[in-house]
Amino acid sequence: MATRHPDTAIIPYLRGDLDEAERARVGEHLAACAECRRASESFHDLLEDLAASAPVPPPVDWMRYRGELRAKLAAHAEPRRRSWWQPVPVLASAALAGVLIFLAVGNLPRSKPADLAAVEEAMLGHRLELVQSQPLLERLDLFEDLEVIRNLGALEASQDG
Amino acid sequence: MEISDEVLCERVARQDAAAFDVLVERYQQRAYRLAWSIVRDAEEARDISQEAFIRLYQVAGSFEGRAKFSTWFYRILVNLCLDHQRRHRWWHHVLGRADGDDRAAALDRVPAPDPPAVDAVLKNEAIGRLWVAVDRLSPQQRAAVLLQLDGLPTREIAAVLKCSEPTVRVHLHRALMSLKKIMRVG
Questions:
Q1: Which A residues 33-92 touch B at CB under 8 Å?
Q2: Could you report the per-residue pLDDT of B109-154, keeping only the tens digit for each?
Q3: H/E/C letters for each residue in A91-113?
């Protein structure tokens, strides 16, 4: 019966990375199988070449490296900078909103809305003839004074008393 | 007696800045070298390795001590490198760059044969081709090859790459088969 080739165990075998039992099994196979032995030799050469020729990274100024790292760490540790509006306490925000609303409402024109004013003007225009034909209506404000005159006696009596 | 990495990591979890500094000094070169060997760009390797230390500082409390500190830290670092590779692959593809900027320069830094002879020059050329081929391996295969060069046993490579030991064996076997084929063709 043909033995299975221990393909994926050859590299760990070369690196001394197998337990004793597996190491013995792979060793026995390599001794008997020329194909696996050739594979093992080529892997061995490749691993040696890789180890001997690993490219060297560009040099680093380690003082500067650690300085940058400290700065980055500090930036991470710092709580996120608040937006300009966040530090304002809720009550102050509410007060500010109240003042703004008051000012906005206070500055609104006192006149009625344009639509309503137009309706009133139309009605007055319609009744203008009636108003003009009754001169008394032009002095309606006098009726308020007549009310005062009518109650003048009672007013004097209360002041004397 | 030197304090172990694992103890230092526990101290970092308690926000001990001095312990963090010691770990950085111990691992800065290895972290930078490994990051560079994967991304092949000095600036990015510096950024990624620094980011790995920042992660270490932030999540030191999650180190449970089941694996070696080095394995745990390498996992953070390699994940960052592979994420970086994934994010930048399309960009390199668009630019027609096989990988980072330093590859050609890196090949220049392959130790020159001494004394210079025809055989040595040919060997040097072959070594150059070998590393170009390493750069073309899949990210997992390349990481496995580079980690084994860093001396990590298969078990630890598996822990770093979050896969099984048989998977690491397959990665290494396929990687070396590809390299062998390229070297033979070249």
A1: 42-43, 46-47, 49-58, 60, 62, 65-66, 68-69, 72-73, 76
A2: 555 545 556 677 777 788 888 999 998 899 899 999 999 998 999 9
A3: HHHHHHHHHHHHHHHHCCCCCCC
